[in-house]
Amino acid sequence: MTKPIVFFDIDGTILNHDKVIPDSTKKAISELQNKDIHVAIATGRAPFMFKEIREELNINSFISLNGQYAEFEGEAIHKHALHPEQLHQFTQKAKELGIPLIYLNNETMRASIDSHPHIKEAMTSIRMQHPEVQHDFYLNREIYQVLLFCEEHQEPSLTDGFNEFNFIRWHEYSSDVLPVGGSKANGILQMVNHLGFDMQNVIAFGDGLNDLEMIEKVGTGIAMGNAVDPLKKLANHITTNVDEDGILNGLKWAGLL
């Protein structure tokens, strides 16, 4: 099919730095939908973390948890969980080192520890509260992503040897833990294949390190003006900042508006 599909990251792309959706973004996405162009979200957040955003923008398709869980129009079309035994070993090592974790599936999240300043700092940055504690939450259920909470220089002491996991830092005090091969790009590929689309007709907007593979693999990758430098180097186009009509201007450049 030649019809385009457009994917938008959330933090720093749909949401500005005050975690508000700019009016120009709301109008731009509505115009796409009025043109019968498929619009979807591609985010590191779990589905329950952006339900209100989906409702506000009337978007029912998404790649979440950095590509590990995807839905199209309310139907789950892709799931990619962390390896259970490796996750158990990882949990035990994190406990030994005193590094807290948060486990996420598509419905909820649980923490490995009652409270920690790194969890508070990182979760506050995305307007989320410290989750409930359940030490064994990862046992006997699919876990699609884990958040580990430590400074960057401390991370290798925990992550070395876990070759079935990828680690992507998203905050000064936190990194995402993903299955090897898991990414927004892979999640998008699963949705595109489900729809019978072509990756060359996919347009994606992003700003962070977890958008690198997505921006590189889609047909047209657009980096926000506020994006990290490595992403800008990969993008086909750099639009303006999120607070400077970045999505609207990017869609105009792409010829969709």
From TrEMBL:
Pfam families: Hydrolase_3 (PF08282)
Domain of life: Bacteria
SUPFAM superfamilies the record matches: HAD-like (SSF56784)
NCBIfam families noted in UniProt: Cof-subfamily, HAD-SF-IIB
Name this polypeptide is given: Phosphatase
